[in-house]
Amino acid sequence: MKQFKLNYLLITLAFVSLLASCKKDKDPEFRLPTQGVYVLSQGNFNQNNSTLSYYDYRDKTTNPDIYQSSNGVKLGDTGNDVGIYGSKMYIVVNNSNRVTIADAKTAKLNKQITIAQPRFVVFYDKNAFVTSYNGTVSVIDTASLTITKTITVGRNPEQMAISNGKLYVANSGGLDFSYNFDKTVSVIDLTTLAETKKITVTDNPVSLAADSYNNIYVLSMGNYGGDATHPPIDPGMTVINAQTDVVRSKPAVSLGYSVPILAQGDFVYFPTADNKIAMFNAKTQTMERANFITDATTVTTPFALAFDKLTNQIFIADAKDYSSNGSLYVYDVTGKMAYSVTTGIIPGKIAFINK
C-alpha cells in the first residue's frame, strides 16, 4: 500500500510539472530565441532609397524597413553589404560614404564611420575589414568602433574572403571604363595586417568565397564584351590554393554579370549566364549539377546567396528588373522552395540573427 501511494504521488507530481511547463511555453517570457533574416536592398543609385527589411521566422511577418522604423530616418544611398558580428550589425552604404553600425537585434543606430565609397565588410579577431573604392581596406576595431589602420590594395576592391589566417581581396578596377581592369587578388596577413602579395586572376574580379578544403573561389566579370580595340574577356572562375597562394585552376563555367557566390559544405553555388544556380563540388573540383533548384520555380535575377545553418536552408535574393521590389526565395537543401518574402529594390545581401 505504501508503495502504491508513493507511485501515485510521483505520477501526480509529474503531471503537475507537465502542466507547469506547458503554461511556461505559452508565456512570452519563456519563448525560445527568435531567429530571423535581414535583407539589405540597395535601392536605386542617387535615390536614397536603400532599405533593411527583417523577416521573423516565428511570427512569419516582415518589417519592410526595420532601420527606418527603429531610427526615424532612411538608411542612405546604395546599401551594399551587411554583416553581424557579436551584438552589432555593420551596414555598408556605398554612395552615402559610410559604414552604419547598429544594434544587431533592434537595428537601432550606434555609430556611423565615414569611408569613401565603401563596398564590403568581413570580420576576424575583433576587427571589421571594409573595402573602399579608393584602393584600400579599412580596419575597424569592433570594441572602440574606430579605424585603426588603412591597408593599400589594388584598384576598386570588392569582396573579401578569409582562409588560413589570411584575408583575400578582389581588386576589380571596375571603375576604369577604358577596359583597363585590375585582375589581381591581394593577400593580407591577418597577424601583421600587411599585404604580402597579389595573385593574378581573370580580369575584373568581384566575388570571393572560401571553402573548407583550403580553396578560394574568385568570380570575375571580364570586360563586358570588349570593344573594337579590346578583345572580349569572358566572365570566369579562378580557384586559388589558400595554403600556397597559387592558382589551382580556372574551371570552365557559365557566368553572367551578376555573380554572388556561396561556399557551403562540399559545394559552391553561383549564378550562371541563364540565371540558374550552379553547384560546383569543392571536394572533387568538378561541376555537381547545372541547377541547384529542382522544382518549377525560377529566379529572374539572382543577386545574393546565403545559407542559414540553423534551418539548413539556402536563401536566394532576386533583384528582378532592378527597379521594383525584389524577392527572397528560401529553399531546402534538395532545391525545393519552402517560401518567399518580398524585399526592397535590388536585394543584395542577407544576414541572419537570433533575437
Automatic annotation (TrEMBL):
Signal is among the record's keywords: yes
InterPro entries: DUF5074, Host-pathogen_enzymatic-act, Quinoprotein_ADH-like_sf, WD40/YVTN_repeat-like_dom_sf, YVTN_b-propeller_repeat
Keywords per UniProt: Signal
Signal sequence, renumbered to the chain: 1-20
Membrane-spanning ranges: none
Record carries keyword Transmembrane: no
Pfam families: DUF5074 (PF16819)
Coiled-coil ranges (or none): none
Superkingdom assignment: Bacteria
NCBIfam families: beta_rpt_yvtn
PANTHER family hit by this protein: DIHYDRO-HEME D1 DEHYDROGENASE, PROTEIN NIRF
Protein name (Swiss-Prot/TrEMBL): YncE family protein
Source organism of the structure: Mucilaginibacter calamicampi
